[in-house]
Design brief:
By secondary structure, the chain is of the alpha/beta class. Helices cover 29% and strands 28% of the residues.
């Protein structure tokens, strides 16, 4: 398994350098021994293996992943990155492999049961994420009082438990995974956004098509569906991008 290192800008000895916001459970995070693990870590490691290449993961805050691929400092990026038309203007994605939505997480003691309870409250989001974008577009509708931005789930959860924010809006699979053994926290609302995650590359990088072909192969073999069972404890729906071979995303 490739090790994660804090990105310093130094050249990597690996064939593929992959940027990731380490701490993004269950996609890429460090286990108790300090080893970098996760759904996307397993996926990218297998892709590199099929391509006959070595891989190194480097730890980059989510918002820094975009400039890192665009500048060529890394070859590709993962971190439950949603494909959007806006992003497709400046980067390229392989076909998606996970369907998702946003969600609202609160403390069980707060009594908040959904977005309607966030009027005048402080909400946390990840900087530059689709959750951040959603609050920017919909915060006024729900009369959200203030938005605070974080670099990943862990610091946001610390502030939520400490009462410095009242709710946290982020990708639902990560939050369901995180709160499953924490009764003091609750995911109280699914926010339907129809998101799909994929691997991000510099605009028109030929590597994207190579990786896309391997993802097609892995879907046909059922490898990504097995990853879903391993990390989420349930089969992937046959209609989702985890199972279904799809085209590479293009601007609409």
């Amino acid at each position: 398994m490739a090790a994660a290192a804090l990105f310093t800008g130094a050249a990597s000895a690996a064939d593929l350098t992959v940027g990731a916001n380490i701490g993004n459970v269950p996609w890429e995070f460090q286990d108790a021994s300090g080893k970098t693990v996760g759904f996307e870590v397993d996926l990218v490691t297998e892709i590199a293996k099929r391509m006959g290449k070595s891989v190194e993961f480097v730890n980059i805050p989510f918002n820094g992943l975009f400039s890192a691929v665009q500048s060529g400092r890394i070859n590709m990026a993962v971190s439950s990155i949603t494909i959007t038309n806006k992003r497709l203007e400046s980067v390229t994605f392989a076909q998606p492999y996970y369907d998702s939505d946003q969600s609202l997480t609160v403390t069980a003691a707060s009594g908040i049961t959904g977005l309607s309870g966030m009027s005048g409250k402080v909400v946390g989001v990840d900087t530059g994420s689709t959750g951040d974008m959603w609050v920017g577009e919909n915060g006024a509708k729900y009369k959200i009082g203030e938005t605070r931005r974080f670099e990943g789930l862990s610091p946001a959860m610390l502030d939520l438990v400490a009462g410095r924010i009242d709710g946290y809006i982020s990708d639902i699979p990560a939050l369901l995974y995180y709160v499953k053994d924490k009764p003091e926290l609750k995911v109280v609302e699914r926010i339907t956004t129809g998101e799909k995650y994929s691997i991000m590359f510099n605009k028109d990088d030929p590597l994207a098509k190579e990786v896309n072909a391997v993802i097609t192969e892995l879907k046909k073999e059922g490898y990504i569906a097995k990853l879903h069972e391993t990390w989420f404890g349930a089969p992937a729906d046959a209609s989702t991008s985890t199972v279904t071979v799809m085209d590479m995303p293009a601007l609409k």
